[in-house]
Amino acid sequence: MTLANKQAQDAMRLPAEQLYRDEIEALIKEDKGAVPPGWQMSPRAVLKYITGGKAGKLDITPKYIGNRRLVEMAIATLVTDRALLLIGEPGTAKSWLSENLSAAVSGNSGLVVQGTAGTTEEQVRYSWNYAMLLANGPTPEALVRSPIMRAMESGSIARFEEISRCASEVQDALISILSEKTVSVPELGSETSARKGFSIIATANTRDRGVNEMSAALKRRFNIIVLPSPSDLETELSIVKKRVGEIAASYQLQAAPPADEALLKVVTIFRELRSGMTLDRKEKLKSPGGVISTAEAISLLTNSMALAASFGSGELTDEDLAAGLQGAIVKDDDKDKLVWKEYLDNVMKKRGSEWRGLYQACRELNE
């Protein structure tokens, strides 16, 4: 085994273009469609990569389970010179879709600007190696290109995560880039023009709305797609089952996968608390203050599997699930504890013997 393969095998998390390398290579090999400039495969092949199918004898695993039309709209946006903004609640696969679109279109999902309150304009445009700058003045060697600038030079897709968490002046640095498709470096008297294939996929969380509202001028540079939460129980169950299996395999958790009954219970609890109503729509419920997303359900189940593997028999028990539920639902405030207690006593307790073990385990932890 080569050193590179050993490092890849030991990596906690591989980028999508490495994790699904076989699928991408198979899709490129069989692709007969028109490939846009700067892309490595046609839009139809990108769609198959995202939504799943067959490439020759190889199964292409679905990366996004949901509305296929939204994926088509996202891919069509990237064919044009418009940038793409994915908006949604936490856990609606915005970053996952962004990463996999970049991997399929450009073969590189690593050109990322992570939006935070501390993100600066230099991280969007360029900065300098100050030791070289002081020694030799502004030179091309001292220039530190941002991921966006490198994407412009290579004709690739850059990702801008959580854009609405950045200050307004940082967001506005994107306006000229998206309009002119150039970055000027006045210190060098030079200008970098974007090659064909360049685009930006940004993500924004609806929970951050109002933190740093995007300007109308910036929004006009994007085609905006809102990613919804899974529309029905079966879809959410499919997503959770698939991702839990993938993560458990990646971490080599020595625990049996959750039974369908356990998956159903967790997803039912999450959907009811998220919507504020039981699935049969007969009883209104209070929702906790924290996020009750599909991603949280996946995290809960994998954590419960780790608990069962490390300190149990390897079989997921009600006690393992209860520990995960307590942490996922009761975040940091007494109100959540009260909401969870009401759900346990008014809903779960009345669901009969099948739910009795989980109810008692949850009740003991929430005392």
Automatic annotation (TrEMBL):
GO molecular function: ATP binding; ATP hydrolysis activity
Pfam families: AAA_5
Database matches in InterPro entries: ATPase_dyneun-rel_AAA, CbbQ/NirQ/NorQ/GpvN, P-loop_NTPase
Occurrences of domain ATPase dynein-related AAA (ranges): 84-222
SUPFAM superfamilies linked to this entry: P-loop containing nucleoside triphosphate hydrolases (SSF52540)
Coiled coil regions in record: none
The protein's name: ATPase
